[in-house]
């Protein structure tokens, strides 16, 4: 027993690891090395067994304390510590498979959720749905209530969702005694293997129907509609989503209802460009106003505000209007609005205007800097 690897090292965790961390580490290893996933690799099975043994000790505070103090010797029965309930040297593959089942409710569950045909923890749970909701930037800024119409599976009215024809009832499945899951024990090189899976007779429902409802062909659900009202908070952006429990497809034969995910899509705005919580707007200003300074008016999401543009402002200079941007989602406060001043050149000058500007050109003797001199601010 002395050559055994340290339990903490084996699970790849620190000696101060919390319960949840231990479980997570074990779960990862157990999935990777489970014998059913590695049928031809005895070393994987041994790793599975070791990891399970380590987990069984470390998850129990008393056993863990003993292990921390005495190491593996604490569980070596010849050393006299091995009390009732402790795992002696005989923690074998069967123990490991059993405790794996007890900890995670079975092989089917841990690998479920799409891959394994059963699809998810509960076989007759309704599907989760996803729906997109389109918002204007203004709606995203103020928050808004939206009514969303869903096409989804709803309970069949003829049978109230049971799937059984009027006057009949679903019967408990005799194959699994209504549990929906069956266990198989088989012998292999490594000893006895216990696996658990979805009952083939009732597909995990736990009940069977001898006289199916005509309206839903025994599934208990039919295509229908539901309108949900969603309150969208202020500050959302494209890609944000809300999860609304219990508004997905209704489960077959009164199984649990799936969830609804509402995905936000915020439209582009004609004036404002959004960068996170900041908004950017381009403000055209005449070159004369930029030279002499001017008080401009700038549109914001809540009305126009005055902006003082000082004399000698260069084109593309950015002014910051603090707190005039988008509200910050779930954090309070607002981003800023950035105003980019753009020199706007008139293209329909009259002959008189041209003549007077020409005079100014001589008077001002303006020298523009060469592009290779960093004179712009
Ligand atoms: Zn069954
Ligand atoms: Zn029906």
Task: Provide a quick synopsis of the model.
The chain has 377 residues and is an alpha+beta fold. It has helices at 7-11, 19-33, 42-58, 61-70, 93-104, 107-111, 137-142, 287-292, 351-364, and strands at residues 129-135, 144-155, 171-172, 181-188, 191-198, 207-208, 221-232, 241-244, 260-266, 273-275, 278-285, 294-300, 303-309, 318-321, 337-343. The strands form six sheets. A four-stranded mixed sheet has the order 10-11-15-14.
Keywords:
Helix Hairpins, HSP40/DNAj peptide-binding domain, alpha+beta, binds zinc ion, 3-stranded mixed sheet, 15 strands, 9 helices, 377 residues, single chain
How would you portray this structure in words?
With 377 residues, the protein is an alpha+beta fold. Among the domains are: 98 residues, DnaJ domain (Helix Hairpins), CATH 1.10.287; 79 residues, Urease metallochaperone UreE, N-terminal domain (HSP40/DNAj peptide-binding domain), CATH 2.60.260. It has 9 helices and 15 strands. It has a 4-stranded mixed beta sheet. Strand 10 and strand 11 form a beta hairpin. Helix 2 runs antiparallel to helix 3. The chain starts with 6 loop residues before the first helix and ends in a 13-residue tail after the last helix. About 7% of the residues have low confidence. The structure holds zinc ion (2 copies). One zinc ion binds next to loops.
């Amino acid at each position: 027993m002395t050559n055994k690897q340290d339990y903490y090292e084996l699970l790849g965790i620190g000696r101060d690891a919390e319960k949840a961390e231990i479980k997570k580490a074990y779960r990862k290893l157990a999935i990777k090395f489970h014998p059913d996933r590695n049928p031809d690799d005895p070393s994987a099975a041994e790793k599975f067994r070791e990891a399970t043994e380590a987990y069984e000790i470390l998850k129990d505070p008393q056993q863990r304390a003993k292990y921390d103090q005495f190491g593996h010797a604490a569980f070596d029965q010849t050393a006299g510590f091995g009390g009732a309930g402790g795992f002696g040297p005989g923690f074998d593959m069967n123990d490991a498979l059993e405790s794996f089942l007890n900890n995670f409710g079975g092989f089917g569950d841990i690998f479920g959720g799409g891959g394994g045909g059963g699809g998810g923890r509960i076989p007759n749970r309704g599907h989760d749905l996803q729906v997109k909701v389109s918002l204007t930037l203004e709606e995203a800024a103020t928050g808004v209530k939206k009514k969303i119409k869903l096409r989804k599976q709803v309970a069949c009215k003829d049978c109230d969702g049971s799937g059984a024809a009027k006057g009949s009832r679903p019967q408990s499945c005799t194959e699994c005694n209504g549990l929906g899951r069956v266990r198989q024990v088989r012998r292999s090189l490594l000893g006895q293997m216990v696996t658990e899976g979805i009952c083939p007779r009732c597909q995990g429902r736990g009940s069977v129907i001898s006289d199916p409802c005509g309206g839903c062909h025994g599934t208990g659900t039919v295509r229908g509609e539901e309108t949900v009202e969603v309150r969208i908070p202020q500050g959302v952006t494209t890609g944000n989503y809300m999860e609304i429990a219990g508004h997905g497809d209704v489960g077959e034969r009164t199984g649990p209802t799936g969830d609804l995910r509402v995905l936000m899509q915020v439209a582009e705005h004609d004036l404002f460009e959004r960068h996170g919580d900041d908004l950017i707007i381009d403000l055209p200003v005449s070159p004369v106003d930029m030279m002499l300074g001017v008080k401009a008016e700038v549109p914001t999401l809540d009305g126009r505000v005055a902006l003082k543009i000082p004399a000698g402002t260069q084109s593309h200079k950015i002014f910051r209007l603090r707190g005039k941007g988008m509200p910050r989602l779930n954090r309070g406060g607002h981003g800023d609005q950035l105003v980019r001043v753009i020199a706007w050149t008139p293209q329909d000058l009259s002959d008189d205007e041209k003549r007077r500007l020409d005079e100014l050109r001589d008077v001002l003797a303006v020298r523009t800097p060469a592009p290779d001199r960093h004179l712009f601010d």
